[in-house]
């Protein structure tokens, strides 16, 4: 089906309902109809009718006291069913659980969404000092190592459609970080995920040897900031990523990891 044919089947009311759901995803504390009207450029009566329909199906819930709307349990349950069917998530989760027990830090799975990195899943740490969950959060790809891995191993052999422009040039610091990522298979940054937050990340590949996602450890800088600790966690991350990538059909990861390690010496 061509883009023009797809447009002919577009139903405006459905598009507006999806716009509402996407807007509610960004509002943890809920949002009022007036705010939605301003943000989406829709009149209040249309928004009210759509919200009432979504509320009746459980996709939206309304707080009587504040008149604020937020996502409901049906939206959560639908998302969980979708995630449970994702091959990457199913392959990664048991490995992430073992890694989290081994290193006692929060382990994340992240994927690319356009020009952003999306934190898809997390196994939390048992440490007393821990970070707020980043699951569902998005950041610019260049902001932290979990996104930079996705950029560093973006396959240039994939032919881009003519309608998709190439991204703008990267600044020198990010370009150096990406080159280091390609050479060593590992990246670390401080502050990209929040003040005092260290992110350590390695790539995940699929059976076509394409970047599928990233495996990352995030925690406070006072625990993850030392070079010794980062090298220790790098080894554990690469071993876990090799298992996940093998589960996705890529069996060259461990040899590649040995080459990356040799490049660091």
Question: Describe it for me?
Answer:
The protein has helices at residues 3-8, 12-25, 33-40, 44-56, 73-84, 87-103, 145-152, 172-184, 221-224, 227-247, 253-264; strands at residues 60-63, 68-71, 106-113, 116-123, 138-140, 187-190, 197-205, 211-220. By secondary structure, it is an alpha+beta fold. The protein folds into two domains: 3-77, Arc Repressor Mutant, subunit A (Orthogonal Bundle), CATH 1.10.10.10; 86-264, Beta-Lactamase (2-Layer Sandwich), CATH 3.30.450. Helix 6 (87-103) packs antiparallel against helix 10 and helix 7 crosses helix 8 (172-184). The protein starts with a helix and ends with a helix. The model is unreliable at 156-166 (pLDDT under 50).
Rounded mean pLDDT is 87
- Give, in spatial order, the strands making up the sheet with the most strands: 5-4-3-8-7-6
Q: Mind summarizing the main beta sheet?
A: 6 strands, antiparallel
CATH architecture of the largest domain: 2-Layer Sandwich
CATH fold field value of the largest domain: Beta-Lactamase
How would you summarize what this structure contains?
The protein is α+β, with helices and mostly antiparallel strands. It is 48% helix and 19% strand. The strands form two sheets. It has a six-stranded antiparallel sheet with strand order 5-4-3-8-7-6, sandwiched between helices.
List keywords for this structure.
11 helices, single chain, two-stranded antiparallel ribbon, elongated, Arc Repressor Mutant, subunit A, 265 residues, Beta-Lactamase, 6-stranded antiparallel beta sheet, alpha+beta
